[in-house]
């Protein structure tokens, strides 16, 4: 057990993600805070509120500046946020020009803006990984497009599908999420500048102009202050939750496909057992299931933070600091494992065929019912198929043999009850899923 499973030395290789962790690190966020203060100095000087030349002096003094995180920690313990301690460090480094720092801002402006800058960077990482994963799944869907397997509904064998179609259904929610990501990035990547109570009183009437310049300097969108509107943060958490849910669907299916009694497919390197050498545990799939559960458990914390009291609230606001980085790291780790699973997918057609042939080929019962319905009332057709299944179960006949014996003449049961009849409609469904992605990407160009 460890208090830091996403970042600690022992558990993070499985549950963490080095790239996401680096983007969300204290060092990275502190650097964004410094960038905010430099940009604010330029914005207030442009508005005529601070001395000409002070912004350049501040930028020069802070070039390569590394905040003392230990001192920031002491400041957080005192003020509840690290910003006052950071501003003190910056002013000490800037000398006389430092008087122009932090003009008209409040600590939440600095923390929120630096947070969304980090989130923006992580979402770029997500964009790359989601895109690559969808591409890999599309390739695998095509590769396994004619591999027939038993489709299962409510845990029971239902009708035949192709493994390629199942893979495509794994990609479907990711395609929708990829299409939503540009708008989500625009929604979260907004500068925060409201001042003490949200109306920019200290810099009135220049608040909007300063926010515009800040946004331009930092590569963010300009907007009204959002101290009390945390819906964009909630939207990010919800989006990541849907990513991990989609990945958990894939992982869960692979766990079921890899059961010893089925052995229809597997993915990942697998983990061995010291005492049961026949086992190959689905470690990556299990990790995704765990990470999805963790993200799902954390997202309500963002909902709690989304109801701050009055103009600003220090208690609920802090819930975002606990939950959001963990959500983003866990989601990135799940995507990392998802890429590994997609790259190592294997199918075992001989075991899939065994399932198709089980119970005399009863998996084709639906096809038999609809074929008979062309020759008799549908209710009679269904009854006839049930009678045929009694022969299958009682006398060991195949469904083809039973229907040839008790069904009407003139029906080619060998063709109708061939599970390969599922290939064409399954391939059409898979192609339609990936066509949705093509259409979505063209719309966003």
UniProtKB/TrEMBL annotation:
The record's GO molecular-function terms, alphabetically, read: lyase activity
* InterPro entries xref list: AdenyloSucc_lyase_C, Fumarate_lyase_CS, Fumarate_lyase_fam, Fumarate_lyase_N, L-Aspartase-like
Domain Adenylosuccinate lyase C-terminal span(s) in chain numbering: 360-434
Do you know which Gene3D superfamilies this protein is assigned to? Fumarase/aspartase (C-terminal domain), Fumarase/aspartase (Central domain)
One Pfam family in the UniProt entry: Lyase_1
Q: Which domain of life is it from?
A: Bacteria
Describe the family membership recorded for this protein in Swiss-Prot or TrEMBL.
Belongs to the class-II fumarase/aspartase family.
Name of this chain's protein: Adenylosuccinate lyase C-terminal domain-containing protein
Q: Which organism is it from?
A: Donghicola eburneus
**Organismal lineage:** Bacteria, Pseudomonadati, Pseudomonadota, Alphaproteobacteria, Rhodobacterales
